Amino acid sequence: MKNSDKLAQLERIARIKAERELKRFAAFSLHMAQAQNNAAAMRTALDQSYRSTAPLTVAEARIANAQAGRSARDLRQAEAEVARMQPRFDAARRDAAREFGRAEVLLNLSAASRDKEKTPRY
Known about the structure:
Helix Hairpins, 2 helices, mainly alpha, rod-shaped
């Protein structure tokens, strides 16, 4: 078996691994985006509750205060979830980039080896 054939086989294996890591990262990225969007929506809702300038009765003010408190707690939890996910997200991105880079290097080595084998030797 030629060296270029061996490299081509390694490249195919690396492509399969890279595809798996990229799919894993894409799923994680979608989950991360949803968590970030959730936190942003909560931040907006909380901001709107504090920007309201409409006069309130005492009962309405109590309700608004309770809603703002609940929104603040939910926002804190959402931001904590994003912060917990961030290290794993960064690791998944690194893993996907590394596997993709490995496949690209093997592809280039395989192509260079094939080219070298095709050139006549004198």
